[in-house]
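Dear colleagues,

As part of the handover before I leave the project, I'm documenting each prediction I ran so the next person doesn't have to rerun anything. This entry is a single chain, and its sequence is reproduced below.
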Amino acid sequence: MTGIAPESSPTPPRRRVVLNTVFSILAKLQSGVFSYLSTLLLLRALKVEEYGLWSLLFIATTANLALVARLGLGSSVRRFVPEYFARSQYRTIARLFHASNLVQAAASLLLVTVALVFAEPIAAWMKFPQSANLLRIFAVGAFAFLLSENIRMMMGGLFMQRTVFVVHSIYSALRLAGIFIATRFDNPFTAVIVAEGILYALQLGFYFIAYHRLVQPHVLSDKGPSERPPWKRFTRFTALSYLNELGAMLLNSATDLFLVTGYLGAWVVGLYGLANRVFGIINNLLPNAFLADVITPLFYSEYGAAPEKSRFGFTLLMKTSLLVTIPIGLWLALMAEPVIVHFFDARYAEAAAIVVIMGLFLPIETVRYPLGLMLQNAERNDLLIYAKVFGVVKILTGIWLLPHGTLTTMVWITFLSVAGQNLLLYYWIVTKLHSPTDHLGLLRLLINGLVCGAIFYLIRPWFSGPVGVIASVLVFAALWLGISTLHRVFRPEERDFINSKLPHPLWRF
């Protein structure tokens, strides 16, 4: 990392956006590749039940711990850092970041202490009573993970995606090597947990070095007039964000693993764990995933001071998100079983039923991002919180139905709850922000999806084996691009805007 120049030095805005977009895409692509390879190593070395516990720790617990321990500070860092970066007020950024980091470290330490002290009852509640010591090891590693995430989000707000890419690439390569070595031990499961914890600590060290080499010099050289951070505004936004994130935790599909382990057992947790991993890898291909770290600060810097102008950006984000997620979701739903059997592990073939539903609801899941971004830009986090009532409904419905349900009961409950939340959020965007999207364009996207899915369903039997699955991707993509080019979904002014940002006017959808 010594050869990386400070990315927050004066750079033309367009060039900065292009560079950060490229590195954001590269980061997500390499993350998807390393995630897939490490998943293969784990599937080959662990029993289904052991993989279920690994999923419970490193998918469900990590995701939910991050939401609980952040206290909403991560959202505030992402919201306010771009605004002050646009004014080159690095001292203000540093004060906001250090204050949030200190509070988050204290909260994370408290959670880790609870996990260390109460490891036995927690492990018993998770239906893995012999894993208390592993839970303690995981808790220490999770502490390092939570602190590194705060630095990562701050760097995203400073448009430092190149640094994030370098750090995450080093971490991912070391993690793959660590898992490879750990799976060669006589007790691979314990070795994997220890390796994951050590690697979280290394990742924190990398981010700490990057911060002091690349951000701190700008703070020291900031000689502008000192401005008191907007603590009242910051605190209000943080508190509302935290309540919203706690609600999001209830709706998160990772939370399903806790309910599933309590009612359906370790085997089914393993199936859900792999389904979530497949879903996560597919998510890395989506624009909301690999461009979120660029889109979020860009959206706030463009519209943060003028939320009334954000309708155009919101409509573009909705359409571009669905343009990609509809075909990927349909393809995943139609090819779920061969994907799992040929590219993961045939022992998990039953997980295909879960993946089918995840694929069908992928577009609905994806629009959570632009809906939330629109309301957060207007600082209407209160509406996001109210919509999380669907998370409570999901948990209560799961507790009610799971004892008598089937393998796919929980995933149906989760995604129907997400759909209900999204409808309510959009209703508020229309009625309170007066910013409806292009309904005709969305209808055209839906029609294109139905036509493309129907055609592919008829020819699906032609694609068998690993080569057939790969060929199906190319055929489905060609079908979708052809249909979307003939039946356009973007208005002329939207196409002109996108083409103005591209080297050549290639956007014809």
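The chain has 24 helices and no strands. Confidence is low (pLDDT under 50) at residues 1-9.

All the best with the project,
I.
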